[in-house]
Amino acid sequence: MRTVVIGSGMSGLTAAAYLAQDGDAVSVFEQYPEIGGVTATIRKGGFGWDLGPLLLDGFGEGEAATLILRELGVDQMVRRVREDRAVSFPDFTLRRPGAYAGPYWRRETLKTLFPRERDGLDRYYRLYDRVMDLLALSRRAEAARGLAAMLLKIRMAVLFQPIRHMQSWSAEKVLDQFFTGRELKALFSGILADFVVRPSEFLGLGIPAVNVETAFDKRIPARVSSAGPRPVYHYVQGGCSTLVEAVASAIRRREGSIHPGTRVRRILVEDGRVRGLAVGDGGVVEAERVIASGGARETLLGLVGRGPLPPELAADVENVPRMISVLMIHLGIDFDPRPHQPEALCYYSRTYDIEGGVRRCQSGEFHEGREGFLIYIPSLHSPELAPAGMHAVTVYTIAPDRLHHGNWAERREELADRLLAEAESVIPGLRERARTTVVLTPDDFRARTLQDRHSFGGRAPVMGKPLIPHHTPIQGLWFVGAQSESGGGVATVMAGSRKAVAMMRAVGR
Q1: Do 164 and 158 meet the contact criterion of CB atoms below 8 Å apart?
Q2: Quick check: do 2-43+55-81+239-321+458-507 and 325-449 share a fold?
Q3: Through-space distance between the first and last CA atoms of the chain, rounded to whole angstroms
Q4: What is the pTM of this model?
Q5: Could you tell me what percent of the chain has a pLDDT over 70?
């Protein structure tokens, strides 16, 4: 079967690799000069920086991305380093202690810092364990068959029953049940700012899932209960471009082709069925199957058009909640930052008002780093990303795709300087000691991803909003990626593409 794939991010590459493995004649078209989308590594002056995937889940033993890499025969090409991250708030910082203090050291530390919240912390961590066990059992049930699958589902039903009443609660409501002070509510909802979703919009039972304790201490074992292993987190050694190239190699060695710098102008549809693509300056590529990744609106409304789409799907596409963009600054510095930040990654929240901060950013107000940022030092886990004695550093924060005041072209250097000034409250000398600097604004990301409104992480995880299915009503047209039903995240979009290919095999088209 002749298959064409639009977009060379990890969702498009994964789908293409599986279909090439199946014997399809596969071609991948990427409008940007380089493949990988935002799962890429950029290089300048001997330094290298990832564009943002950072600390990844799904790459541990038995986890989704590892399974995919093995099925594609490229697992040995992607070296992983298990690591963790720290978090810092105005009044406290939590970072991995020098001596291992067990899987619940954060709970015990927080009891010392906030003695009035001791009971709430115990109750929250009971919920945490229950949710983690449910997720572990769910992963096992997906892979099981017959009686084994049925027994796992019965166990899940019993485990879920005591928290069933919370299933429609928001994160805000769940956290209000456990904590009285703003500090712990902000601690456990702070990562939602990275998703650009307010605690009042996010599924409450998802809070434990985005605060997995292994993310904060790499020494915590994955298996702490009989339910099964919990997620662990890794960096890709040498940068995420090695992951991109590994999966791309699985396409090429099966005679698939990848065409960077080739823009798709139209998805051709006739009588409810795809016929191929219009590319470049007028060329046509015929195909029996089209797999599209990228922005839902830009792809389904822009490349297909409303005409062939059912009205209800077009309305759902219009209403997909999207994350916003980022301001990202890459630095090559000539000193060791570890006395100031010993770990590769730390999130710095400068506010406890997560709800208000996200709302303001969604409205176009840019906080310029005053409400929070993160600092990532990839050369700590991958020394090859910087010359000897130097380090690669990334500072970034969420930022509106369009500014409420002015525009990114005019204010690029000004706003980058203000963000770095905030980051120097953590690591002094970043600007003065920078050997090279690369600034990426929403304008740059919009050009890289070909989105009218850049969404860095894809679909925002807002409760009650529609999901765009992989299987579209147009025969032969499939939709994958961070704005599809899979949601965002490197391992998640890879798993979504694997699922979509399984659906293609089942329906035979």
Answers
A1: no
A2: no
A3: 9
A4: 0.95
A5: 100
pLDDT in tens, 271-298: 999 999 999 888 999 999 999 999 999 9
Among residues 140, 242, 243, 193, the alpha carbon closest in space to that of 461 is found at 193
In the chain, domain spans: 2-43+55-81+239-321+458-507, 103-217, 325-449
Task: Give backbone dihedrals phi and psi of 113, rounded to 5 degrees, phi first.
Answer: -70, -35
170 with 203: CB under 8 angstroms? yes
In this prediction, residues 215-232 reach a mean pLDDT of 96
Q: Any long-range contacts for 189-192 (C-beta under 8 Å, 24+ apart)?
A: 189/354, 190/87, 190/89, 190/347, 190/349, 190/354, 190/372, 191/347, 192/354, 192/358
Confidence of residue 509 (pLDDT cuts 50, 70, 90): low
Mean pLDDT of 121-129: 98
In percent, how much of the chain has pLDDT > 90?
Answer: 96
User: Using CA atoms, how far apart are residues 280 and 38, in angstroms rounded to an integer?
Assistant: 22
pLDDT of residue 143: 86
What b/e readout covers 16-28, taking b as 16+ CB neighbours within 10 angstroms? bbbbbbeebbbbb
Q: What is the CATH number of domain 2-43+55-81+239-321+458-507?
A: 3.50.50.60
CATH code for the part of the protein at 325-449:
3.30.519
